[in-house]
């Protein structure tokens, strides 16, 4: 099994935006930021109102029948031949990598493969399909980045976040120790094995704090919820936001018309 | 049914059916043709990085170097091959600066405690070396039995520079190992070592504490 | 299961994973020992592969293993034929108990009282030491790490570095107490003391027992990777050598070995090669002056032929036991090897042990992972460990009617309550209207959100519901 080589499409006129349930309920600002960034690149954003969840929580818990029934409801949301962008490596990975397995031997197999092949993690899409050029309008600052494990290993976008942040001339990106180590979220893992997850997130927060910066950005809201939630509860001096929120806040023209 | 037949039948009647056999392309193991000098350089670098010692000698000078090395360690004796030219040369060297020369010419059962407790050093030939990993190829024989290179605290090996291969893959192909192997063959890459106590390296845990390679150029 | 029949009262209860993990997490010494050891191993591995086309090499490693597995029964027969020609006696064992009995019978036939052992994970799987002891045969470990672990009456906490959970001070005290060495932190002194004690044992042992890293069918050769020389001693000094190995360890040719060896030692300890690579193809010949008179190979199935039946689970058998998956595992690093309570800890243990002990016994193993994928990323033979963990999670709750479960003890973790929760979850998320209504209502009522949410809020604040969902905001935007 060789992982398929990523072939980026030409910049399209439209995309489907798959918001994910965590962004939907807890971090809609990150979703809006993503939409704004896409629109500024001249892309029309289609948001299917019938989207719910990619099915991953049930899938990774072993409840594949339930995951399939939820995922099946997502397959019909993207009738046009446009790319599907997702502000999450985790949900993106579920759709791109695991949908074909989940629908193996089912009547929806072909449709699932078609959807999977069109799924892109949003920052990857902005950098490598839109070839976005960011103009930094913010004050000088430092930031650390946590790339989620699924963004890094399933979607292969570990280089993307740092490259985007590197375009911001007033932003100094600092690297924590063991940047590739998991923050301990892991979906239901965090509640099934709370002590282990807690030990992992405490070391991740320490690593971020040790960089000296007071803020971090991440590709995934699961990690964000975990890391920022731990820092808040334990009064550690670091706050987080989704990388899309950060990029949009740094580059939007607050005074007048969007640039 | 015997356990053998039970196991083989379960494997043959595999529920998932026949498996596809993938192609194996070994070219990733091949290296551009290194020159002899490059191979020697790499071999030396690698074996020194694992605490091995290398001395460059010629067919005429190695015995003198050997005598110095043994004297500096205060070796009382040296176990040598009986028939191999290494042993012949040492016996015929007529030098008085070599320690007592011992020959492994009896079955181990008759002198085990002596070998384990009284022999200070040994010298063996090699069937070549591997530059990439800094390894010696040893095929013990009745003339150079297995324990000769293992039990004494100092093992000295003679390696002809012309017999240095670039990779293990190349060596086994060139020496046609697939045609048949001896009862015991070995790659030796440095002295015996362990890191089992808190990852701290210690040498000579069971085998030799020192490995000295005399490269004959 | 017949495989578990030999697991007597001394056996650790695998189901007690949680309390052991919790204890380890709150033990600063364990945390520090593993963290620093794993950090070192990760950076050494990285350095060892510098200059290599690692992805192509891993691809070759995977293909070499898959090719061997595709021809497994034929290769085993070829191996048996060749070894027999070479004078090595081949035995077959369906499970650990049978393998133990075979070893015992060989010992009894020689009237053997003492066995010296080289490192062998399969013998740990068989619980051979314990068994031999019950039979009145002394079995002494000679790998320094295994020796330390045996002195302590423990089991290995890592498949390559068995005593990694102990620091020098602890080992010094242990050796002082059990063998009378000085209370010294000088590793060289401690090592030299062990050398002295074990040399006596090597000289007097009746039988040597070792593992096998690769068994080569073409030439009938047993390959053994080691650094200490105890493997050489074990297989050379005693008059009888018994090698024990899993049936999956056979490969067709020495060329296959060259690929796997390049991957194994670099992945395991970051070494370009180990100090010794032993290739044993027969007992002592008439004109030879040392080496064992008898050499035996015990081929152990112990659940492997069951794993072999399934196309997906089969990948588990590619493993070459390098331990890189545990070295890179954030869970293993936090809890250490003993928390698992299994012969093989860490990611490989989580996908292998359920087959050996059943999913009822090993029910906590597949879930104890954040599915971060670090293990799969470093596996030298590209075992998709995270995918196999998900498969075993599905098996443990019988969660897929389309692809029914196969592993022994499947469904052991399914609870009616949890199944109902997931059914309800699926019902809501498969109905867009219901989902929008539910999430919309939740955000409206967010003031009522509880600040405590079970295990999550032991360590973190509860996530805060937004004032409006993305659905609502996107709808407003389009109006």
The CATH architecture category of the domain at 2-9 and 54-305 in chain C equals 3-Layer(aba) Sandwich
The mean pLDDT of chain A is 95
Estimate the global geometry of chain A from the Cα principal axes. Answer: globular
CATH topology of the domain at 2-9 and 54-305 in chain C: Rossmann fold
Task: Provide the CATH top-level class of the domain at 2-9 and 54-305 in chain C.
Answer: Alpha Beta
Give the N-to-C terminal Cα separation of chain A.
45 Å
Task: Say how many strands of chain C there are.
Answer: 10
Poorly predicted tracts of residues of chain A: none
Instruction: Find the CATH superfamily of the domain at 2-9 and 54-305 in chain C.
Output: NagB/RpiA/CoA transferase-like
**Overall 3D shape of chain C:** globular
* Spatial sequence of strands, sheet with the most strands of chain A: 2-1-3-4
Oligomer category: heterotrimer
Question: What structural category characterises the helix and strand content of chain C?
Answer: alpha/beta
Low-pLDDT segments of chain C: 1-10
Please summarize the sheet with the most strands of chain C. 6 strands, parallel
Summarize the structure.
The complex is a heterotrimer of chains A (259), B (217) and C (479). Chain B is α/β, with parallel strands linked by helices and 217 residues long.
């Amino acid at each position: 099994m060789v992982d398929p080589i990523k072939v980026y499409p030409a910049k399209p006129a439209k995309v489907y935006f798959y918001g994910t349930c965590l962004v939907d309920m807890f971090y809609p600002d990150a979703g809006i930021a993503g939409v704004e960034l896409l629109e500024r690149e001249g892309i029309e954003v289609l948001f299917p109102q019938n989207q719910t969840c990619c099915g991953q929580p049930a899938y990774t818990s072993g409840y594949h029948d339930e995951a399939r029934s939820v995922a099946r409801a997502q397959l019909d949301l993207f009738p046009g031949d446009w790319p599907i962008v997702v502000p999450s490596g985790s949900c993106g990975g579920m759709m791109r990598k695991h949908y074909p397995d989940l629908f193996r031997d089912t009547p929806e197999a072909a449709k699932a493969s078609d959807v999977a092949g069109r799924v892109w993690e949003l920052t990857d899409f902005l950098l490598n399909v839109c070839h976005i050029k960011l103009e930094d309008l913010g004050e000088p600052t430092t930031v650390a980045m946590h790339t989620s494990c699924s963004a890094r290993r399933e979607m292969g976008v570990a280089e993307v976040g740092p490259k985007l942040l590197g375009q911001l001339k007033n932003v100094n990106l600092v690297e924590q120790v063991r940047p590739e180590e998991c923050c301990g979220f892991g979906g239901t893992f965090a509640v099934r094995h709370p002590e282990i997850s807690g030990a992992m997130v405490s070391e991740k927060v320490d690593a971020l704090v040790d960089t000296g910066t007071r803020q971090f950005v991440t590709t995934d809201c699961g990690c964000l919820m975990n890391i920022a939630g731990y820092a808040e509860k334990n009064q550690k001096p670091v706050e987080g936001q989704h990388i899309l929120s950060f990029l949009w806040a740094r580059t939007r023209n607050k005074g007048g018309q969007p640039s | 049914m015997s356990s053998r037949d039970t196991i083989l039948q379960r494997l043959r009647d595999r529920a998932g059916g026949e498996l596809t056999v993938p192609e194996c392309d070994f070219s990733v193991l091949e290296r551009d043709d290194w020159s002899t000098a490059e191979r020697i350089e790499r071999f030396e670098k690698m074996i020194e990085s694992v605490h091995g010692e290398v001395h460059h000698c010629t067919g005429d000078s190695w015995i003198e170097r050997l005598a110095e090395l043994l004297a500096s360690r205060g070796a009382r004796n040296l176990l040598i091959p009986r028939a191999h030219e290494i042993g012949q040369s040492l016996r015929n060297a007529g030098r008085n600066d070599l320690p007592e020369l011992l020959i492994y010419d009896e079955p181990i059962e008759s002198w085990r405690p002596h070998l384990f407790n009284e022999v200070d050093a040994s010298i063996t030939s090699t069937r070549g070396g591997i530059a990439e990993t800094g390894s010696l190829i040893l095929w013990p024989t009745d003339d150079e039995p297995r324990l000769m290179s293992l039990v004494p605290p100092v093992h000295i090996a003679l390696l002809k520079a012309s017999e240095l291969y670039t990779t293990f893959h190349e060596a086994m192909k060139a020496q046609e190992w697939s045609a048949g192997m001896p009862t015991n063959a070995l790659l030796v890459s440095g002295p015996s070592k362990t890191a089992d106590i808190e990852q701290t390296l210690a040498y000579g845990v069971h085998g030799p504490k020192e490995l000295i390679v005399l490269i004959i150029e | 299961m017949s495989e578990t029949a030999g697991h007597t009262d001394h056996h650790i209860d695998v189901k007690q994973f949680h309390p052991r993990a919790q204890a380890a997490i709150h033990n600063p010494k364990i945390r520090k020992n593993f963290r620093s050891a794993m950090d070192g191993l990760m950076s050494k591995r990285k350095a060892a592969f510098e200059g290599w086309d690692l992805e192509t090499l891993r691809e070759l490693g995977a293909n070499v293993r898959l090719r061997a597995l595709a021809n497994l029964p034929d290769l085993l027969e070829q191996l048996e034929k060749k070894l027999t020609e070479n004078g090595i006696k081949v035995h077959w064992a369906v499970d650990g108990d049978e393998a133990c009995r075979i070893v015992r019978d060989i010992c009894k036939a020689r009237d053997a009282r003492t066995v010296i052992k080289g490192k062998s994970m399969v013998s740990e799987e068989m619980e051979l030491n314990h068994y031999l002891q019950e039979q009145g045969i002394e079995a002494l470990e000679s790998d320094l790490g295994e020796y330390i672990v045996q002195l302590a009456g423990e089991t290995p906490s890592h498949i390559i570095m068995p005593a990694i959970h102990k620091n020098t001070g602890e080992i010094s005290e242990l050796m002082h107490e059990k063998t009378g060495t000085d209370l010294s932190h000088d590793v060289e002194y401690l090592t030299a003391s062990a050398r002295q004690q074990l040399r006596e044992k090597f000289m007097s042992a009746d039988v040597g027992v070792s593992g096998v890293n690769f068994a080569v069918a073409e030439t009938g050769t047993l390959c053994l990777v080691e650094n200490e020389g105890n493997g050489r001693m074990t297989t050379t000094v005693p008059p009888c050598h018994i090698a024990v190995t899993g049936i999956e360890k056979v490969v067709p040719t020495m060329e296959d070995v060259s690929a796997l060896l390049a991957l194994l030692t670099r992945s395991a300890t970051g070494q370009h090669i180990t100090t010794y690579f032993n290739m044993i193809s027969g007992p002592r010949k008439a004109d030879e002056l040392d080496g064992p008179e008898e050499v035996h190979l015990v081929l152990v199935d112990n659940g492997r032929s069951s794993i072999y039946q399934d196309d997906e689970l089969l990948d588990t058998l590619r493993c070459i036991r390098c331990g890189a998956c545990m070295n890179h595992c954030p869970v293993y690093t936090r809890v250490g090897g003993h928390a698992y309570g299994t012969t093989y800890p860490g990611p490989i243990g989580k996908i292998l042990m359920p087959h050996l002990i059943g999913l009822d016994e090993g029910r906590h193993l597949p879930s104890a992972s954040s599915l971060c994928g670090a293990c799969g990323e470093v596996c030298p033979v590209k075992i998709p460990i995270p995918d196999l963990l998900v498969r075993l999670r599905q098996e443990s709750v019988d969660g897929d009617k389309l692809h029914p479960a196969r592993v022994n003890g499947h469904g052991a973790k399914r609870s009616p309550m949890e199944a109902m929760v997931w059914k309800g979850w699926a019902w809501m998320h498969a109905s867009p209207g219901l989902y929008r209504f539910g999430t919309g209502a939740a955000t409206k009522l967010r003031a009522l959100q509880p600040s405590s949410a079970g295990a999550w809020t032991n360590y973190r604040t509860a996530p805060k519901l937004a004032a409006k969902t993305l659905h609502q905001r996107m709808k407003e935007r389009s109006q």
